[in-house]
Write a structure and sequence with these properties.
Layout lengths: L2 H11 L4 H22 L2 H13 L8 H28 L5 H13 L10 H8 L1
Length: 127
């Protein structure tokens, strides 16, 4: 066996299954939801989520300022979990770009994307 063949075999053995990667990202989203409930009451989070979804959104709307830290984190975590569910249901391959997209969803869910306005983007992609 040559050194090149050994390198290929060791690289193939180190690949992580897609479900493990998706579960890891899902746990990260779930940790945002859990943190949101640690820093705010459920009633405060519901009030904050209503304020977030009914506010006039521009690209840089600060959801921590509108709904509070708890609601902002819950919004980001729930959107990340929804995106993970879409990836899981579609059977998409979890490449580095896919993981980056999931974390982009998490980031944009903190300032401009919420549980209401994000679905129109997905509908547009389906069209």
């Amino acid at each position: 066996m040559t050194a090149k063949e050994t390198d290929r075999e060791s690289t193939a053995a180190k690949q992580v299954p897609d479900n493990v990667i998706l579960l890891t990202v899902s746990l990260f989203g779930a940790s945002f939801v859990a943190f949101g409930f640690l820093v705010d009451t459920p009633a405060g989070i519901v009030r904050g989520l209503v304020a977030i979804t009914t506010s006039r959104d521009t690209l840089l709307t600060d959801y921590f300022g509108i709904g509070g830290i708890g609601a902002g984190c819950v919004n980001a975590g729930l959107l990340t979990l929804c995106a993970c569910l879409v990836y899981h249901r579609s059977g998409a391959k979890m490449t580095g770009a896919a993981v980056a997209c999931l974390f982009l969803v998490l980031g944009f869910a903190l300032f401009g994307k919420n549980l209401l306005n994000v679905w129109f983007i997905g509908r547009g992609v389906l069209l």
